[in-house]
Amino acid sequence: MAAMLDALKSYVRTPSTQNQAEDTVLLHVTHSNLKQHFIEIRFDLHTTIERVKEKLRDRCGTPVESMSLQLYDDTNTKICDLIDDFRPIGYYSPLDGYRIHVIDADPTSMSAGGWLEDTSLVEKYTISEDAYNKREDTFRKYREKRVAEDPTWTLQKVTEDHMADIASGIEVGARCEVDPGGKRGVVKFVGTADTLAAGFWVGVQYDEPVGKHDGLVKGKRYFTCPPGHGAMLRPDKIKVGDYPERDPFEDEEEEI
Fold it and tell me: Does Chaperone count among this protein's keywords (predicted)?
């Protein structure tokens, strides 16, 4: 058993080039129209030259009927032309590290003139200013909407000390009112929150069950309050001061 395990370990640690099947070969590929080189493509030695061309067509875009192949050794010396489509590639005795060079004879080929590599040759999509302004799904419209909602809105990255100056005037235990909405409560937390966006946050326990949680936010507890009474807000939404708990019946008219 130990001998079998040692043999298996030896096999696994052996370089992949020694473990590959004896009837396959690793060849590099170059192309007459392309700067890119394809490194170590595995070929079955029984594969016909026609099938080799089909495999290379999928990589370089040259039609099979417009493709001529040449075989070079690892010293860049030409061995031969692969001219017989029905012979297996093994007939030409290629070795690992040899190179197949593809010659594309089609002047209208996708690879001609650098079309597959030079992005500057690709026509760019353009749109007029008027047409762009008429679209609703643009960043410009999104920015206009956000600025209309909040004139201070910006795309600048939020820092860890975002709104620290406002948060410094808010203390845990202070009565507060949330704007907008006028919901009242007590401050339960002031600081940064690992599970939320960067910057300072204020945790509030509302007087009424109009919140979203009990102080547990995305798996981390920042404070404790009854379920449905908690909220985490930015400091600029909080006004602290003399905000006593409202009488739920203060707006009801007296019965006559």
Answer: yes
Omega before 227 within 30 of 0, i.e. cis: no
What mean pLDDT is reported for the chain? 84
Q: What is the side-by-side order of every strand in the sheet holding 34-44?
A: 34-44, 24-31, 99-104, 67-72, 78-81
Long-range contacts of the stretch 178-185 (C-beta < 8 A, 24+) = 178/204, 178/206, 178/231, 178/233, 178/237, 178/238, 178/239, 179/237, 179/238, 179/239, 183/207, 183/208, 183/210, 184/243, 184/244, 184/245, 184/246, 185/229
- Render pLDDT for 116-138 as a digit per residue (tens, 0 to 9): 655 565 667 788 888 888 888 88
Interval 198-212 mean pLDDT = 94
The model carries a pTM of 0.41
Q: What is the pLDDT of residue 156?
A: 66
